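Async update (no meeting this week)

Hi team, since we skipped the sync, here's where things stand on the single-chain job. The sequence we agreed to prioritize is pasted below, unchanged from the tracker. I ran it this morning and attached the output directly underneath so nobody has to dig for it. Comments welcome in thread, and please keep replies under the output.
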Amino acid sequence: MQKVNLKGLDLNELRDFVVSIDEKPFRGDQIFSWLYNKSINSFDEMTNLSKELRDKLLERAQIDQLKLVVQRQSGQDQSIKYLFQLEDDSQIESVLMFDGNRATLCISTQVGCAIDCKFCATGMMGLNRHLTPGEILDQVLAVQKLNGTRVTNVVCMGMGEPFHNYDNLMKACELLSDELGLNLARRHIVVSTSGLIPKIYRFADENHKYRLAISLNATLDEIRSRIMPLNKKWPIAELMKAAAYYTKKSDLRVTIEYVLMAGLTDSLEDAKRLKNIVKGLFCKINLIPYNATLGEFKRPEERRIMQFYEQMRDLTVPVTIRWSKGDDIDAGCGQLAVKA
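Output:
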C-alpha cells in the first residue's frame, strides 16, 4: 500500500484522510496544527494523539521533508542561501534575507524553469518538474527551524515561473496564510511572474489577496523578445493591459520589476519609455541592477544606474533601486541555479 504524504494537504483533505482510516474528523485538525503550526516531521511528536493512532499513521502515511544539503551565508549582508534536496533527489534553492524586523524568504516553485529568460541562471537549467504544494511551503517550515527565526514575508521569486505551477502555488499560499497554521499575512506574500497573461487574469478573477509582481525588464518588444522569449506570444502592450486589469479587480498595487542591463535596458530613452508604459497604472517600480550569471549580460556602472533612477523620479508612483542581497553567494535575483 502506497503511503499518503500528509504535508501539503489542506484541512479538509486531512479530515477526509483520518475518516478514511476510521478516525474522527477532528483528528485532522490536530494533525494540521502539528504540521503547519508546530512544524513537526514525525508522528511520535504528535503527543495529543494516542499511540494506536500514531502507529496507524506510521503504517498508512508519511511526512515528506526537505533535506538540507548546504547553506551559505553572505559576507556582505546577513542573507543565507539554502540548497535543499527533495524526496526524489532533485534539488532547489531558497534565500533568507533580513531588513530591519522583516525576515523575507525567497522560495522556489519549480525544479528549474521552462521560460528560458536569457539573463537568468535558473533558465539555463531547463525545467525538471513542478514542486508540490508541500515542497513549496516546506521551504518556509525548514528555514524557520534551521534559522530559529519566524519568516515574516515570502516572495515567490526563486527557481521557476510561479504561474507555470499555478494550482500547486495557490494551494501552498493558502496553507502559508491559514490562521490555524503559519498564519502569514496574505499581503506579505508576493507572487512574481515573467508575464503569463492568462494566469494574471485568472489570478485577478479569483480575487487572491497575495501581491503580484511582473518582470518587465525591457521597454521595446524587440529587446524583450530577445531576452524573454515568451514576449513573442505575450508582448508588452498586452502585458500592461493584464496588469491594469489586475489592479482594478484587486484594488492592489502591482510591482513592475525592471532589470538594468548595460547597453541593453539602461538608456535614458528606456527610462522615458518605461515612464510612458506605466503611465496611469497603479504600481510601484523596482529597478534591479543586473546580477552576474554565466550569460553575456553585464551590470551597468553605478553612475548609469543612478542616472536612470533620476530620470524616473518625477513619476507619481514609488520607484526604488533594489540592490540584491547575497549576490556574493549567487543568491541575488536571477542567480539561483542548482550546480551540485
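Quick observations from my side:
The chain has two domains: 4-62, 67-329.
The longest helix spans residues 133-147.
Reply here if anything looks off.
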